Amino acid sequence: MNRLAAETSPYLKQHADNPVDWHSWDQEALALAREQNKPILLSIGYSACHWCHVMAHESFENEKTAALMNDLFVNIKVDREERPDLDKLYQSAHQMLTQRPGGWPLTVFLTPQDQMPFFAGTYFPDKPRQGMISFRDLLKRVDALFRERQNDIARQNESLAGALESLYTPPSSEAKLVSAPLDQARNQLAKQFDEKQGGFGVAPKFPHTSFIERLMRHAFSVGQEGVRDEKALAMATFTLEKMARGGVNDQLGGGFFRYSTDDAWLIPHFEKMLYDNGALLAEYAQASAALDSRLFKRVCRETANWAMREMQSAQTKEQGGYFSSLDADSPDDQGQTHEGLFYVWTPEQLRAALADGSEKNEQYEVFARRYGLDKKANFEGKWHLYISADMDELARQFAKSKAEITDLLDSARERLLAARQQRIPPGRDDKILISWNALMIRGMALAARYLDQPEYAESATRAVDFIRNTMWRDGRLLATCKDGKAHLNAYLDDYAFLLDALLELLQTRWRTDDLSFAIALADALLAQFEDSEQGGFWFTAHDHEQLIQRIKTYADDALPNGNGVAAFALQRLGYLLGETRYLDAAERALKNAWAGINQSPMAHCAMLKALEEHLDASQTVIIRGAEQSLAKLQGEVSHRYQPHRQMFFIPDTITDLPDMLAAKAPQQQLVAYLCAGMSCAPPVYGDEILKTI
Question: For residue range 103-125, what is the model confidence (pLDDT) as tens digits?
Fold first, then answer.
């Protein structure tokens, strides 16, 4: 056992039995490197990462390789999900040093005195392969490089430090904020759009939920019913449809895999990440409201049910929090791991699971036709399920009604899911991360509202309560929790995403404690993260550990950008409470981001969402009344997709409200207060409300 046995991260614990003398990233390890004048070998990965497992098995479990690592380097292992600050920094450094995008596992060699990277790569094999040097040979060469070329390394580090500073500290801008980037982003996305298969670009294809949301919002305008831009709406919803029907969607158990390895969304990389599913749940919920789509509603229910069934803790210490990920790999009966093994089938397995005692086995025949088993094997000699035949086609082929076909398929899927649950499941990373939880809380809130599923709001509420009770201490968030132990300073994304999620959940069901929590988060954002000189928000708090560069970014990556989410949520909270300091902070962030937004609008979709509502302020509707009357009205209007409006239903028994909301007092009947930005119209009463909103 090495030091990683004491860590909370499941990924770090996976390496606790390695013969490598691993350290976590801490002051003890950094001091040791300085004292011994040994370079740091920094290895960054995460528990669901397939190639991280491969490199661990090939190299970190190898006694000879470990001995070389221990002799030449101070070895530090980092979970990129717990330390996104380190991951962002050293991924950027990798790209600058190699002129290639990074990935995981990330392998970076740092100078001992200042932790500057002087050599970087990703996966290295144990033997020379496909033009790649073996990891052991690499270790020897890097050691020689460090010992023999100190002056060259110093010059390179100086240049790299300047490049990182220019990357992460955009200059302030007093440029006028205008709407042009909104149209430019829409046109850029249209050029990237795959007209045949949906999505953007070519394989590997990722969900790109920020693109989908940008197009959905672009299609609808403030104060105008219906669609403004049919093409924008079609690009978004066609992509959602293709993903829903493809193998990137788990057709039996619900939930989406990380990405598709092909253009048609058929064969995924089989890891499931909480953040993908939270964001996709939100987009399918909104699209189900925009189109009244049965398919999208079904996907919402299956995704939400998967999250509650497999990803939400029911244990005492972590009651309500959502876990982080499911691995791509799972073991066979001999203990050998294989990617996707848990999810794929043979016809013989399916026939046995669906046996009905008849020779024909009609349920199997219908299921096989629906999910592509009448085609060639599509994954390593087995079949991964995707929707291959439409319901009308099946009804004609089997001379049954669509309702009968639906019943057959629903029964088959239920039986097969039960059979699949008997297999050895993929590993689950059961740490709880606030930013990822916040994305699922938001998705659950939207699904609850648009699909009238109160159990989803209850699920989201349990997660919020867990975070507030366990990970909120002395007015600050802690980023991660495992087995009841919360630690590490939280990041910008944790505060921003949770603030945004609380505002969505408050629109689904009102709790004044959640509003108070949202206000506390917003105040902490301004106090701990805002760049008071240039505008915008740093990724780390003012009292965070000093790294080689402090990060401030505005472009999206796999997650929406924290500055964009912060600016959007602060604006909405500012309009709700009449609090101009939140609005001013959002505007300063937009101005600091302006150069990047103009350079590449589609890369800044989260910022564009904030820009859109800065230029055309969101509508805020406060409705007061008796709980029963409020619930009836909410049921009548909650199915509408109105992305530029926030609507809160506050029972008339609620009295502990901030001044701006308290002024919107209950009356003897239902009353609605409609505001656009800071301007409010006269109250609307009773039956007139439904006509107005």
Answer: 999 999 999 999 999 999 999 99
Q: Which two tokens stand for residue 17?
A: 């039995």
Torsion of the alpha carbons at 309, 314, 318 and 321, rounded to the nearest 10: 30
Q: How far apart are CA 281 and CA 438, in angstroms?
A: 12
Q: Which of 403, 287, 423, 271 is nearest to 339 (CA)?
A: 271
Q: What is the pLDDT of residue 1?
A: 86
Beta strands in 57-206 (DSSP E): 74-79, 106-110, 117-121
List all residues 6 or more positions away from 33 whose beta carbon is below 8 Å from its beta carbon. Answer: 39, 40, 74, 110, 112
Yes or no: say if 570 and 583 are a contact pair by the CB < 8 Å rule. Answer: yes
Q: Which two tokens stand for residue 595?
A: 């150069």
| CA–CA gap between residue 165 and residue 158 (Å, rounded) | 11
Q: In which element (H, E) is residue 623 found?
A: strand 619-625
Percent of the chain whose predicted confidence (pLDDT) is above 70 = 99
CA distance 572 to 551: 25
Q: Does residue 204 have a cis bond before it (omega within 30 degrees)?
A: yes
Q: Comparing C-alpha atoms, which of 576, 551, 574 is closest to residue 561? A: 551
Cis ω for the linkage preceding 425 (within 30 of 0): no
Dist CA 289 CA 336 (whole Å): 44
Structure tokens at 382: 């087995």
**Burial class of residue 409, CB neighbours in 10 A (0-12, 13-18, 19+):** middle
Q: How far apart are CA 235 and CA 188, in angstroms?
A: 12
Find out whether 622 and 651 touch, Cβ atoms under 8 Å: no
Q: Is 269 exposed, middle or buried (0-12, 13-18, 19+ CB in 10 A)?
A: middle
Report the distance separating Cα 693 and Cα 686, nearest Å. 12
**Residue 303 and residue 300: Cα distance in Å, rounded?**
5
State the sign of the Cα–Cα–Cα–Cα dihedral 94, 95, 99, 103: positive
Residue 66 near residue 18, CB atoms below 8 Å: yes
Give the chain's end-to-end CA distance (angstroms, integer): 62
Contacts of 124 (CB under 8 A, 6+ apart): 55, 59, 107, 132, 133, 134, 135, 138
The pLDDT of 573-581, averaged and rounded, is: 97
Return the half-sphere exposure (C-beta side, CA atoms, 13 A cut-off) of residue 370. 23
Question: CA 137, CA 334: separation in Å to the nearest integer?
Answer: 33
Which amino acid is present at 614? H
Q: How far apart are CA 508 and CA 516, in angstroms?
A: 16
Model confidence, pTM: 0.96
Strand order in the sheet with 325-326: 272-273, 325-326, 428-429
| Burial profile 107-127: b = 16 or more Cβ within 10 angstroms, e = fewer | bbbbbbeebbbbbbbbbbbbe
CB 156 within 8 A of CB 92: no
CA angle 184, 190, 191 (to 5 degrees): 95
pLDDT at 487 over 50: yes
Mean pLDDT of all residues in 322-347:
93
What tokens were used for 551? Answer: 């990060």
Question: Which amino acid appears at position 234 of this protein?
Answer: A
